[in-house]
């Protein structure tokens, strides 16, 4: 099992009405525009704000018909807010020890040492929170949350306060929580890129309700999903490392959509990885270019086209049975006379890799 919710929550005229079944493992991304109720949903699950309805986690009913059956402090979860809140008078080791000691001895599983290893903060143990960067503080806050031995991690936009470099440094640590600990994560964000890099499952919210849900790779590349029509539309492709070309700092991958060459990946041959392909980094042509600077040119078929914004279209392609999105100007689509069923070549300019 998993987390089953059937919740109603009213806040100053805003109504959250959410029924969903979150899986027992992996990262479930909760995505939606500002004000749609993502934080409200997370806080209602944590029991930090009152709600009506039911909440069941694993074999336990936390709430039934709005009645709390398990008090908030006994729900075995950790809630991480956008801004890390560390104890300023304790160093990193003290912050972790505080959380660890609050867990009954027999239930302690994640030691401060293990949490520090997972989050890569072994060197910071004797530093005070004030001396840490935003990204380092967030890693310590996550490690401290892990020391409380949670069976469910709720993360509310943990990267939103960080710059893009700090964000990309923290992403692999978030992945490693999921790889090293059997702890499901519900991860709120309005960044499609974060969702593409992290989420296994996606829940899409709009105006207080859950409007869609499903596997992230499928949902991101469905043309009728609200995610496909934005400027940041992205597709997920699963791949395996074939070999490295040290001279040119490149790696060759075997992927869902065929062989791909990407910037050198620091993983041994045979490793599995996830690739995120931004729709705006994919261009189309009708004939295979003979001399192009672009390394990845793959045969594909147009499966559908949808107007994205004025002057722009999103094209859904089928490539080896896998869907991929490309963002073009409406003018290019018209000049190429793109329509469903047409054979094209997809030129993939850059690929971001998430292992
Ligand atoms: N403390 C509060 N009291 C009353 N209404 C609130 C409170 N916090 C949020 N709301 C309202 O609830 C609605 C949902 O807010 P919420 O913060 O859950 O959205 P969100 O999707 O997380 O937004 P964002 O992505 O901007 O963080 C909004 O209309 C907001 O104004």
From TrEMBL:
Residues 291-355 form the Mop domain. GO terms for cellular component: membrane. Keywords: ATP-binding, Cell inner membrane, Cell membrane, Membrane, Molybdenum, Nucleotide-binding, Translocase, Transport. The keyword Cell membrane applies. Residues 1-232 form the ABC transporter domain. Signal peptide: none annotated. SMART domains: AAA. It holds the Pfam family ABC_tran. The keyword Transit peptide does not apply. PANTHER family: ABC TRANSPORTER I FAMILY MEMBER 10. This is Molybdenum ABC transporter ATP-binding protein. It comes from Persicirhabdus sediminis.
């Amino acid at each position: 099992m998993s987390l089953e919710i059937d919740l109603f929550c009213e806040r100053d005229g805003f109504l959250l009405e959410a029924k969903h079944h979150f899986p027992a493992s992996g990262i479930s991304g909760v995505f939606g525009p500002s004000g749609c109720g993502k934080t409200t949903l997370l806080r209602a699950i944590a029991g930090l704000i009152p709600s009506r309805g039911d909440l069941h986690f694993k074999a336990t009913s936390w709430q039934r018909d709005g009645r709390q059956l398990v008090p908030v402090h006994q729900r075995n979860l950790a809630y991480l807010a956008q801004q890390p809140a560390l104890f300023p008078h304790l160093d990193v080791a003290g912050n972790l020890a505080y959380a660890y000691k609050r867990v009954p001895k027999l239930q302690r599983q994640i030691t401060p040492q293990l949490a520090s290893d997972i989050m890569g903060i072994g060197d910071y143990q004797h530093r005070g929170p004030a001396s840490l960067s935003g990204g380092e503080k967030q890693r310590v806050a996550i490690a401290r949350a892990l020391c409380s031995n949670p069976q469910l991690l709720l993360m509310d936009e943990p990267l939103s306060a960080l710059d893009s470099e700090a964000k990309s440094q923290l992403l692999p640590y978030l992945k490693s929580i999921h790889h090293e600990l059997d702890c499901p994560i519900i991860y709120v964000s309005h960044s499609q890129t974060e969702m593409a890099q992290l989420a296994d499952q996606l829940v899409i919210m709009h105006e207080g309700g859950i409007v869609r849900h499903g596997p992230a790779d499928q949902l991101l590349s469905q043309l009728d999903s609200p995610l496909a029509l934005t400027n940041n539309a992205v597709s997920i492709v699963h791949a395996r490392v074939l070999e490295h070309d040290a001279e040119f700092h490149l790696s060759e991958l075997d992927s869902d959509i065929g062989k791909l060459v990407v910037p050198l990946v620091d993983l041994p041959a045979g490793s599995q990885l996830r690739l995120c392909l931004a729709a705006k980094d994919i261009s189309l042509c009708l004939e295979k270019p003979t001399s192009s600077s672009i390394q990845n040119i793959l045969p594909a078929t147009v499966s559908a086209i949808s107007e994205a914004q004025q002057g722009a279209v999103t094209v859904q392609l089928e490539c080896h049975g896998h869907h991929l999105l490309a963002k073009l100007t409406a003018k290019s689509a018209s000049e190429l006379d793109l329509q469903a069923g047409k054979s094209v070549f997809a030129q993939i300019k850059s690929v971001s890799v998430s292992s």
